[in-house]
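Blinded run. Sample ID left blank on purpose so nobody reads anything into the name before looking at the predicted structure. Input follows.
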Amino acid sequence: MKAFPSLAVVVWLAAVSAAPAAPGRPTPLPQLGPTPLLYVLFNGPRGMKIAFYQGAAPVREFTTPVTVGLRPGYISRVRISGFPGRPGLTLFPTLEVRGTLRAPPELPASRYPATFRLSEVDVTHLAEGAMLTKVIYLEHPHKAFPEPGRVDEPIELTFPADRDLLNEARNYGRPVLVVRIGDRETSEAELRRESVPNTILFPDERGLGLPPCPPQLPWACFQWYDPLIGPRPARAGAPPEEECLRDGGDAGHPVGFDAEGRLQGVDPEDTVAEYSDGDGRKHIACSNRVCLCVPRFGVVATEARLEQTQRTLIPIVSHGEQKQEQLEARIGLLRHAQYEQPVESVGRSRPSATEGVVATSVVGRIEGLQAVSAQLLTSDLTGVCREQPRPVDRPLCLCKSCDHKAAQLGDLVTFTITYSNQGGRPISDVVVSDSLTGRLEYVPGSSKSSRGAIFTTQENESGSLILRWSITGKLLPGETGTVTFQARVR
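Blinded prediction complete.
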């Protein structure tokens, strides 16, 4: 049977054939699109040094902390030494780069490095002959731990040695780097032979040449997805799910009123408002969704330590007999039924003037089935749900915005929620509710309202808070109000 090259090898061959005559010459990295490198911050005890190998090229050694860019799909070999109080201890980790950030063009990936950190406990166990494996993953916001995060010291989970760390990491996000460390001594020649040139971007470099061989982990360059339901759905041009926090709208279970008229179904990330129209009927309005890009990495680790055990084995004589038996079975007819989902449906619908918009605010009044007009006030990182024509008796419009498009861990961001009466009759009993995701921590005392309001908070299931503003008085036609608050990114 004829063997066909993998897609990663074909792409590499096409890049090599299109490259100039001097493949080793550094070429500038692309300024737009997903980053071709995974930036990794190496950190450890004070004085720890790390040396990088790239074939026959000179060895580059740095004192940690240091950040370098690693090309996905390749395996890198490094040497770590200089541990305080352990002059003879030298480690030779293997780095498997299995992914990278898929950040928007405005987001420089070098500002959001994945962190590989060796703690004092790790060094002690490695000196005693332990085998350490760590998988660094990009955390999914919906599965984030409601704890403050630090770039130089990410949240780390420890699992037993018999667990598959890659599968464990996929439960929390997207694996990007696998580090394996043992006590095996490695020669200088072996380190050079197992490394590939032009796969590491050092702090004093601006570009990389093409590597002389295709990726060693070709499958690692492609996204894992469920084999039955396929990849996660995403809007065209929308940022990836792991890189950005989304807040606002009604993304989870639909919000509604229970039998006693109380608002239910406000899930983390939801931003909604309840109000009463001129006839006293209660309604719900949902805001748009805002996007805040702030990637956060986590670590899952496992450790295999040498243990001394003693066992006494006693020889035992055992006898057994085997007989031949005839087994007969009859299986009756089974009924098989299969349901197929219709592929195409044909029907008629009355044309209307409804127009979907993507913007941060809606301009103009909505009467009956008139078209919705909009203005795009910010970049593509802030989007608005598709608006449907709002009946005259449900006129409240809710809009949410953020003063940042990207942030760092620990930054303060300000959210603004604007509500307006775009109908022809007054509305009353306006209550704005915002349930924060676990990655956002409300800053006490930062709530402000342009109109009289009673502000309350309540814990939610994500480890954060539900913020509520009960607006006093009536909201006359054309009137607008705003509430603002600050949150710390964790």
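Unblinding after everyone has recorded impressions. The chain has a mean pLDDT of 78.
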